[in-house]
Amino acid sequence: MSRELNHLPAPAKINLFLHITGRRADGYHELQTLFQFLDLGDRLSFRTTPKDSRILLSPELPGVPAEQNLIVRAARLLQQATGTRQGAVIQLQKRLPMGGGLGGGSSDAATTLIALNRLWDTELPLPELAALALQLGADVPVFVRGFAAWAEGVGEKLQPASPPTPWYLLLLPGCEVATAAVFGHPDLTRNSPPVQWQDYAEGRCGNDCEALVRRLYPEIERGLSWLKGLGRGAMSGTGASLFCPFESEEEAQRALEQRPEGMEGFVCRGHNRSPLHQHLQIQTETL
Ligand SMILES: C[C@@](CO)(OP(=O)(O)O)[C@H](O)COP(=O)(O)OP(=O)(O)OC[C@H]1O[C@@H](n2ccc(N)nc2=O)[C@H](O)[C@@H]1O
Ligand SMILES: Nc1ncnc2c1ncn2[C@@H]1O[C@H](COP(=O)(O)OP(=O)(O)O)[C@@H](O)[C@H]1O
């Protein structure tokens, strides 16, 4: 019999700081970062097809053929790992900008792994799902685990963390930044000394991609210099999304109304437990 899960959240993440501490022999970069979730994201609906193993996704994303979409790749990976012959019909409501440093594609993939693992009764434990997730991208495991985390390695070594959960103004300068292009740039800072939690707590951590990305993208420079005039404005991941914490929703809302012309913005809240895990009542703290 066909089973369904509808309107599941695929939340955005932000990197509260991002340091690049080295480069591995395979070209991937060693990071230190602090991930937090936002109550803003894509939505996904799933219906299983017990007698048809195809994975059907609609709508297709512009410029991303279905077989390259992380949702379809996640579903196929779970089929391969478990040997299930079931398929699924998946609907995507895309809200997060692509290449926005908010991890939208990675979060879609994680929501797919968690939803289909439940609907297909394949029952892989979360740590095993997180190991599969890493094959899809460095950012996918944190969305599977579902707790805000201090991350090291390429982003897969995760320690639960409880940073403050302020309101944020999220500002979208409207450009797409390719993660691979930033990591491949000769001018990127790649030798930050390792830091500890105390360094973050005392304001000594930033985003090592920021100087380069500001130089390459004038719109990001414009948005970030405006946000830094308001408070602790920062860039998420390799860009392009920008954020600034506020003590109240009203303050964030007032800032939103004065945002630079031509830029989209949202007021949202930071969460140390993923909205997906809250929605499905997955016990993250027992991991
Ligand atoms: C930088 C971060 C920080 O959260 O986020 P985004 O800006 O993409 O959101 C992530 O580590 C991104 O993770 P993710 O977007 O999953 O990256 P992947 O698909 O694994 O990698 C894309 C490309 O970036 C480079 N890459 C990625 C991660 C890493 N630690 N070192 C790298 O050098 C590689 O060239 C890789 O081919
Ligand atoms: N479901 C998906 N949603 C968004 N992007 C996807 C998806 N599947 C594959 N991609 C590809 O991954 C790239 C990075 O997407 P995204 O995760 O949104 O940005 P970022 O890694 O900067 O946070 C996109 O430009 C797109 O080519």
From TrEMBL:
GHMP kinase C-terminal domain residues: 205-261
GO process terms (BP): isopentenyl diphosphate biosynthetic process, methylerythritol 4-phosphate pathway; terpenoid biosynthetic process
Class in the EC hierarchy, top level: transferase
Active-site annotation: K13, D139
Annotated residues for binding of ATP: P97, M98, G99, G100, G101, L102, G103, G104, G105, S106, S107
This enzyme's EC code(s): 2.7.1.148
Pathway participation: Isoprenoid biosynthesis; isopentenyl diphosphate biosynthesis via DXP pathway; isopentenyl diphosphate from 1-deoxy-D-xylulose 5-phosphate: step 3/6
Domain GHMP kinase N-terminal: 69-146
Molecular function via GO: 4-(cytidine 5'-diphospho)-2-C-methyl-D-erythritol kinase activity; ATP binding
Recorded catalytic activity of this chain's protein: 4-CDP-2-C-methyl-D-erythritol + ATP = 4-CDP-2-C-methyl-D-erythritol 2-phosphate + ADP + H(+)
HAMAP family recorded: IspE
Family per similarity comment: Belongs to the GHMP kinase family. IspE subfamily.
Its job: Catalyzes the phosphorylation of the position 2 hydroxy group of 4-diphosphocytidyl-2C-methyl-D-erythritol.
PANTHER family: 4-DIPHOSPHOCYTIDYL-2-C-METHYL-D-ERYTHRITOL KINASE, CHLOROPLASTIC (PTHR43527:SF2)
Name of the featured protein: 4-diphosphocytidyl-2-C-methyl-D-erythritol kinase
Species, as recorded: Aestuariirhabdus litorea
Classification of source organism: Bacteria, Pseudomonadati, Pseudomonadota, Gammaproteobacteria, Oceanospirillales
Gene: ispE
